[in-house]
């Protein structure tokens, strides 16, 4: 598939070595997606992967979590957590990332965690009044890197999907 060919294409046009980690197909019903991480092996290495188990079935596409080692960075090990939330369930799915956070601490004993993705976290999907129900936003444990005012889209809309 194109997904597995892409890292090899990168290697053919770059002197840097690449590898990848890919999740299983995730999703409900007939619509499925995969999470794909492509990384430079001379910069980071994957220590362990973890497919979040979602006993409450909150997530349409459960996070596929990577613990990585980056010995030349300030945080020598950290965890990457992607989420592509379902637009209609964005508030509940973003809030449930707090439970993912707790599971990672329990599993790996670290809070060096970065949440990534298309959260569908603006405009019609997450209203300003919804943020008070999202623990990632109300807890002082988390730092949001992008202000709500940042326009991170390339289209005419300024609906941010990444906060």
TrEMBL record:
Pfam families attached to this UniProt entry: Exo_endo_phos (PF03372)
GO (cellular component) term, any one: nucleus
GO molecular function: deoxyribonuclease I activity; DNA binding
GO BP, one annotated term: DNA catabolic process
Residue ranges of coiled coil: none
Ranges for domain Endonuclease/exonuclease/phosphatase: 37-145
Name of the protein: DNSL2 protein
Gene that produces this protein: Dnase1l2
